[in-house]
Structures are given as structure tokens and as C-alpha cells.
Amino acid sequence: MSSSPWFAPRIALSTKRTRVLTIVSFLLPLLIWSAISYLPFLWHPKIKIVEPGDVSYFKINMLVDREVFDKETLKVKEVGKVLPIGTRANPIYLPAPHEVAKAFVTSFTTEPQRRSEQWLHESLWHSITIIFFGFILSSLVGVPIGVLCGTYAAVSRINEPFIEFFRYLPAPAFGALAVAVLGIYDGPKIAIIFIGTFFQQVLIVSNTTRKLDISLLEAALTLGAKRMQLLFKVVIPGILPDLFRDLRILLGWAWTYLIVAELIGTSSGITWFITQQARYKNFDNVFAAIMMIGIIGLLSDIILAKLGKYIFPWERSANKA
Amino acid sequence: MTQIELPSYLEQSGEVKARFDDIKQREVILELKDLEKVFSTAKGDVTALKNINFKAHRREFVCVIGASGCGKSTLIRILAGLESASAGEVLLDGKPVSGPGPDRGMVFQGYTLFPWLTVKKNVMFGLRSQGLGYATAESEALQWIDLVGLEKFSDSYPDQLSGGMKQRVAIARALANKPRILLMDEPYGALDVQTRSKMQSYLLEIWHNIDITVLFITHDLDEAIYLADRILVLKSHPGEVEEIIEVPVPRPRDPEQFISPEFLATRKRIDQLIHPPITEDGEDKLNMIRLTRVGDEVEP
Ligand SMILES: Nc1ncnc2c1ncn2[C@@H]1O[C@H](COP(=O)(O)OP(=O)(O)O)[C@@H](O)[C@H]1O
Ligand SMILES: [Mg+2]
To answer: Chain A interface residues facing chain B, Cβ-Cβ under 8 Å?
Structure first.
């Protein structure tokens, strides 16, 4: 068992190894980040002033470049005045892991600066609703068109050439237009998510539909299935698990359009929170917010994957056999 | 080694002769008239089938045998209505067929079970397509599942079954529609030898118990002789009927008959037909030029 190789092409790892590697894949970046943050001889290009000494413009807790500190120290030393004292530090935009960890809590409990502004949970929720509506609207139109394109050559020919062209147009390019048409609030943001998702979605879904084994359709025909039955009793159930997987991947892509979408019109949601915190130089909050997006994305994908196993029991059995 | 003297494959015992006399009196279920199929490809027209004339009688078991690529699948796909003939016609009960229909059941080599449906629902598929109510379709399906011996697996999904079991489900699914003829395209091609011979016996048993005509494609000589009343031997390029052989092996069949003189005589005949003596076109000859004889290299 334990002698089986770690690197064998296309061979699945044991559950134990899979678990170990999953943990390592998160632990490794965390370790690198910790090393850079906590080992003063690694990077730390700045000096944090502890005692300003006789350098007139140094103040306690001020961050200066190392060369500047050395130069000023030298100057003071030459004239025999009191030397400044400092410790090595990282730039303000790289907070240490424990600071970010703390920010995960404090960013939720910190009151907004102004009354009109939102708490973090409100911002996050706003982002989630934008994604949700953009993605649902896109799927409501895109999935049926994709399935029809993949099933009927005629539908494919009339749709796919244009979509093939349109998908190369970057969704953010439509930002100004979306604002002109839909106003400055949520409308244009949802539209950007929609544009970013829809065209890829039609092509991916139609491709998935085309991959359905044609002999299943032939078998259904010899069993006496009629046209509509072929679509509803064979094509759609046949592609469902793959379709679900496609949607999970597409949902991930929709998240990547979120930041651009939220910058359009009045800045909102998590993007607003991030830009706002960056302006106040609360980079621990910025990091925490960015990670929250990742965590929400990952969690929703894991939940959907589990849900998939539950609603497509035949897939589960296929894996076991 | 001395050759054992085999009887002619044309020699039939009284019992076998009586069976064929009986078969020939039965109504014709399937008739192929001057069937021809030409595929137009980028490289030009390919004649896959030509001059196919044949009649299958009720409850007859017909095997079609021929080298790979000779047009067996094309033939059965035309019969199923999945492909249209370039010329000639297919008559089922005297009526020309156009397009696929539940009156001809088909079993494919790849199992083609619907993976998202349980065994029971797979078998119900045709019945439901026919507009049968759920309860009726279910009870009928369960009977067919019983017949192929899979009652314990009626709620399993196809991917939980072995290859042989899947093919039994496929047979039950095709038969549930009560087709006039069961078309089978190398159904056991993907099975291992043991499962295969078990499945052959199963099929004979099912065929024995219900009123069904079978057209079974194979490239396995033993399989064809073991199963068939008559064997349609196709030759390649273009696929034409080379000979129709009446199998002189008595029924009920038993694997022990594989070494009976009638069996071996039939086998020899078909072997000659599909593996004709090598012609001098050089295609099958090994290129010997670069080979040295073993031992040459040690000679000075
Ligand atoms: N759709 C097609 N287009 C062109 N040629 C085809 C097509 N289907 C089959 N053929 C050709 O017809 C011949 C018979 O094929 P097939 O019926 O599959 O043979 P078999 O089942 O006996 O192995 C082959 O030469 C094959 O290349
Ligand atoms: Mg074939």
C-alpha cells in the first residue's frame, strides 16, 4: 500500500494522501507568508522607528526604507548626536497572518465610518445577490439555448457563429453602455455578470450536449421515442450531471467578473469595502475581504458538489463500480 | 496429422430437415429486397451493401456473419431504420419500414442503457414512450426483468452491473416492446469468453420461451453456429450475400455440440467463406528482406 508511487499518471491517490495534500496545499502558502512576516531577516525592506533619536523627521511607529534609515543614522553619528532605534518591518500593504486573522472578526464588528455606508456583512450580501441574479438570469436563457444548440444543428448554426464572435468582447467594455441603459445601481452590475457568463455558457452547454453518446438517442428511437421525448427523456437527463458541473465552473467565472461589475456606476458590495479599506490603509481588512471572496466561492462550490452527488445518484454508483 | 473425415455441412439429419421444413412454412416476418447501401464520402462512393435478398420466418434465429467492415452493422441499422437504404426495401410483415420503430427491438454492442435510469425504468422506457401508464408499464417491465433473471437488480443503476447483466437488461428493454423481430449487433462482442457463452445459452432460452424472431450479428463462427437456424454469410467490398447456410446441428443446442461432426463441418465451410485462401496480391505477406535467419550471426 504505502509503497505505491506518488507520481503515477492518471492514477488516483489514496484518501489519506489526498487529505494530506489538500491540507499541504493551503498550509504551504500560509507558511511562506508567515516566514516572510515573522522572520525579520527575510525581506522586511522597511524599518519601523522605535526611538527617533535626533533625526528630526522620524516619529515613533513611522516606516522608512532601510537605506534612508542607514543614511540618517550615519549622518547623526558623524555629528555625535543620539542615534535612532528601529526594528525591521514589512511594508504596510503586507500585514502578518495573525493581523489578517484578527481582521476577519474586527472587519465585521467595525462600525462603518459614515452613516450612509454599509457594514461588511451587508456589503458581502450585496455582492452575493449581484452574482446570484446575474448568474441565474444568464442560466435561465443560456442553458436552454445551449441545450437546443447542442441538440439541433439548425439552432446551433443560427446562434453559435455570432456568440463565438461576441464572447471575445470583454464584458467590462459594456460597462458604460450598461450604465447608460440601466442606471447606476444594481442593473448594470448584474448586466456585466450576465454578459460575462452568458456567451461562454451557451457554448459550453451546447458542447456538453453534443458530447452525449448518440447511440443513446438511437436506442431511444428504436424503443419508439418521438422527437420531443428524445429531448426531454434522453438529451436533458443524459447531460444533467455534466451540465451541473459546467454551471459550477461558470459560477466560478462569474465571481471573477464581480469586482469589475461593482466598480461600474456607484461602487458597491465587497469591492466598495475593499477600496474603502485600502484608502484608510487598513490592509489587514483588505486581505480579509479578499480571502472572504475565496472562501465563499470555495464553500459554495463544495456545497454544490455535494448536492450534485445527492441529486445524481447514478453518478455516485458509477464512481464506485 | 491425419484429417478427420467430416460430413458435408449440407447433410441434414431427419430431425433437422423437419425443423427447416417447419420454419419455411411459417409466415415471413422480415424480407429484404435488393437492398443496397452506398455511402458518399470525401474519397468517393463506398458501396457497403449490394444485392441483399433474404427472408426471415417467424421464430427463426438468423445469424449474420462476415469479416469486420463488410457491412453487418450497416445492414442491421437499415433494418432498425437508423439508416436508410440507397436502393431496395425492407418489409416487416409485408409492410415497408421507414425509420425506427418499436416493432423492431435493437440491442447494440455498446450497452446503450440509460445511465440515469434504474434497470426497471430502463425496461419501462419503451412502454412509457408508447403511452402506457406507469403502473402497467412497471408490472410489465418487472416481468421482463424476471425473465432475464435480474429481479434482484431492478432498482440498480446500469453502472452497478457487470457487462453480461447490462446486456440482459438491454435485451429485456428491447423485448418489453413486444417487437416482431429482435435485432442484435454483436451484442456479446465486449464480453469475456465465459460470460459470453453463458449469455448465448440465456438468449437461446429466452428465444425458446417467447414468440420472437432474432437477427443476430456476430463475427464469431462458433457463436453463429451455436445460435442460428440459418447463417447469412456476407462477403466484403461490397457486402453481398455469399451463402445462406442452414445449420445442420440439431436443437436444443448444447455447448458439447461444438465438437460434433455437423458443427465442425459447418465451421469449416464458413471459415473457408470468410477467410478465402490468400491471394497473391502480396498484401498479407511479411516483409522478410531485413530478417536474418537465427544462427546466421554466429557463422563466420
Ligand atoms: N457513415 C458512414 N460513412 C461512410 N462509410 C461508412 C459509414 N458507415 C459505415 N461505412 C463503411 O461501410 C462499410 C461497412 O461498415 P460496417 O457496416 O460498420 O461494417 P461491420 O459492422 O461489418 O464491421 C465499412 O467499409 C465502413 O467504412
Ligand atoms: Mg459492426
So the answer is: 213, 215-216, 218-226, 229, 233-234, 237-238, 240-241, 312-314, 317-318, 320-321
> Residue B47 C-alpha to ligand 1 middle, in angstroms?
9
- For B182, the closest chain A residue by CA position comes to A222
Q: State the Cα–Cα distance between residues B250 and B225, nearest whole angstrom.
A: 11
The ligand whose atoms approach the alpha carbon of B239 most closely is 1
Dihedral of CA atoms B80, B81, B83, B86 in degrees, nearest 10, equals 110
Pick from B105, B114, B116: CB nearest A222? B105
Number of domains in chain A: 2
Q: How far is the CA of A56 from the centre of ligand 1 (A)?
A: 92
Mind telling me how many Å the CA of B107 is from chain A's nearest CA? Answer: 8
Same domain, A145 and A281: yes
Under-50 pLDDT residues of chain A: 319-321
Find out whether B172 and B190 touch, Cβ atoms under 8 Å.
no
Distance CA A105, CA A86 (A): 30
Q: Model's pTM, two decimal places? A: 0.87
Q: Dihedral angle at the C-alpha atoms of B273, B274, B276, B281, nearest 10 degrees?
A: 150
Q: Is the pLDDT at B107 greater than 90, yes or no?
A: yes
Its domain, for residue B41, covers 8-103+179-274
Is A300 domain-assigned?
Answer: yes
- Spatial CA neighbour of A261 closest among A167, A175, A132, A201: A175
Q: How far apart are CA B247 and CA B245, in angstroms?
A: 6
CATH label of the domain that carries residue B233: 3.40.50.300
